[in-house]
Here is the input.
Amino acid sequence: MQNISNHVCAGLLREIGEYLAMQNVPFKPRAYEKAADAIDGLEEELAVIYKTGGIKALEEIQGVGVSIAEKIEEFLKTGRIAYYEGLKKKAPVDLSELAKVEGLGPKSIKRLYEKLGVKSLADLEKAADAGKIAALEGFGEKSEEKILKGISFAKSSGGRFTLGFVMPEIRGVEERLRKLRGVEKIVVAGSVRRRKETVGDADMLVISKNAKPIMDFFVAMPDVAAVIAHGATKSSVKLSSGINVDLRVVSEESYGAALNYFTGSKEHNVALRVIAAQKGWKLNEYGLFAGHRGLQRGQTRTGKWIAGKTEEELYKKFGMDYIEPELRENTGELEAARNHTLPKLIGYGDLVGDLQIQTDWTDGSDSIETMAKKAMAHGLRYIAITDHTKRLAMTHGLDETRLLKQMAEIDRLNKKFAGKIKILKGSECDILKDGSLDLSDAALAKLDVVGVAVHSFFNMPRKDQTERIKRAMANPNADILFHPTGRIINRRPAYDIDIDALITAAKRTGTIMEIDAFPDRLDLKDDHIRKCVEAGVKMAIDSDAHASAHIAYLEYGIAQARRGWATREDIVNARSVTEMLRQLK
Ligand code: DGT
Ligand code: CA
Ligand code: CA
Ligand code: ZN
Here is the structure.
């Protein structure tokens, strides 16, 4: 079976619908669109649904009939849909690219092709720039403006990868380069080093006296799909995964300045340069210089060289404490560094527990025992098993009876693992439409850790959605609000909620807010975390693992917590199990 995400499958079905709409086929386009929407809203992976229930289970998905279920099956099995490929071959335009432009539907794409020969995004931009779209009947100036705006959004949001997708690839490249002769130092900079939740491209720096063989090796790596640039000091490639990587050679004496420059963010760099200028200095990727007049780009020793060998030294010259890369977004870190009030961020080795883990009792793929063993391998001292509850029928969610059975199994395993790891009894209890919980209070009261989460009715009005979640948080059994905003990166925006009101409610009710570490969730976001820190609301960093390999995702949750200025004290599962349990309701 192919490893295909729901998002990719939904995208393909949507495209089928668009091709059909271009051919003026009635009804069918809407059916494909509906099925795609339903799949996008699924909590469960299609592959899992199919694996457990076959094509019949696919047909049970809202809006998915026999014919669409067959196509999903074909896609899951072979990674292709012949029907889609046939439609694509017949159509002359790049629909997947053009349909990304907001407000541009299949019908208008068809007209733009027939009247103006628009086949691609580039054609579209050219036509709009030339004012040709405004002149077209049924379009006008307003829609041309809208199209131009849509093009720039499609350009800016497209092509960003989640950190969790990029990180393993880039670490692989880094390791291969590190082994080469002549590499004195190799380091990843840019948004990857800042651990941003999504990454445009990866930026790497290497110190070497003989860079040519390194550049030659870099552009010839087996997973390079295209060489964008191949030079003596800078090369750029596109990996077969789609990620672009820049590699630059820097000199040892300006290593700190270069690392600082290429780590960014751009906003942080600009602000630091302004501070330098106020002192009569100049800062660039070669170093920090006094008496900047006459200094040319590329000259390293003109002007009086002040600092640049290490980043620590650089910040010190500014009278600042060292600023961790995760903080470099120009959101107050420079002032705090100067006032010596930067927080001591939670460390990458500080977690001792994981409070959200799904198993094969519901939609996870591994047993409780396998998850526990893997958690031990990661150095964790405790985990909470938090399977879904009955309302999520698709996941085979637990009712009160099965929950009791699971608790007995956990008791058995705890005897087996005594002294090694503690398995806590928990739940990812569904928040129902009215804010009540999916399991009885009596059942929840028996558990060690209760997470509550929204998995349905994403489109409620802001006030209602906020009230609904607040009601769930007020339940004396609800310990943690799981993935509080529900956003899924590159797929689904957060549900409309008043996050400040939820943080206030968390404070009042003693509910813990989760930082869900799953790479396409990373929910809470950095600015929400900062608000929790300021409000004194405790958080938990959880993997949301649905397979034992996912426990490694905790790293991305820690990164997110650091980007939100969180310290070890802010995170409950950085504490021993006894201390952690004491912080629950
Ligand atoms: P990304 O790739 O979009 O995820 O974000 P970054 O931050 O990696 O940005 P990128 O790859 O364009 O550039 C890498 C770093 O180089 C960036 O973080 C800061 C620095 N940089 C790039 N352009 C400028 C600029 O125009 N001015 C300044 N001061 N720094 C820049
Ligand atoms: Ca970058
Ligand atoms: Ca770059
Ligand atoms: Zn799940």
Observations:
- The longest strand covers residues 422-430.
- The radius of gyration is 27 Å.
- The first helix runs from residue 6 to 22.
- The domain at 6-156 is CATH 1.10.150.110 (DNA polymerase; domain 1).
